[in-house]
């Protein structure tokens, strides 16, 4: 189960980043515009469900397109092996000659690779076309992206939902900002793990980008609210 989760950790990370950033931007912009908490919740959940779905569909279609493209070229390679085997065998020979093989060793490599059509085609796909088969399910990619978008994107809204059920006297936006910052730190940590970079850099980068997006949204909301009030 853990290995399967790690397989889709990249989709979880990027879905979570987008969900957290865009939802907190909605919250910040709404607060800047002086909107009521109920409206913030409505706009926030609308963003979660609509934008999350759009992002997951995009992830699914992108993955499926890559898979379909791979299978199309793989089928073409099979046809070329069937119709022009000597030409394809010579391509394998040229590929491995360029890698430094020569003489009897080169011919042995060519003979071993071309003795099995699946192995032959796989080698052509990798070495000639530089295409690798995606072993992740497009449906799983879309699903993980959507769930991550919603799950992590809920963080900026949690305190407003609690306030709706049980009114609080605290500064809701401040608490939302702190919770969101913690969410950014966790996602930044996971992002650094996925990209195999320094953890503190991944965390700092994520929280800075999220903070900038929130500031832009807040001041845009405040500016629009001022303009509307003037009118």
Overview of the molecule:
With 231 residues, the chain is mainly alpha-helical. 85% of the residues lie in helices and 0% in strands. It contains ten helices and no strands. It has helices at 2-7, 9-32, 37-83, 85-98, 103-114, 117-127, 138-153, 155-165, 172-195, 199-230. Helix 3 runs antiparallel to helix 8 (155-165). It is elongated. The N and C termini lie far apart (57 Å). The mean pLDDT is 84.
DSSP, total strands: 0
Percent range of helical residues: over 70%
Any idea what the shape is? Answer: elongated
Stretches with pLDDT under 50, minimum 5 residues: none
Number of helices: 10
Evaluate the radius of gyration: 26 Å
Instruction: Report how far apart the termini are.
Output: 57 Å
Structural class: mainly alpha
**String of helices and strands:** HHHHHHHHHH
**Main sheet attributes: strand count, strand direction, barrel closure:** none
Mean pLDDT: 84
Q: Hey, roughly how much beta strand do the residues contain?
A: under 5%
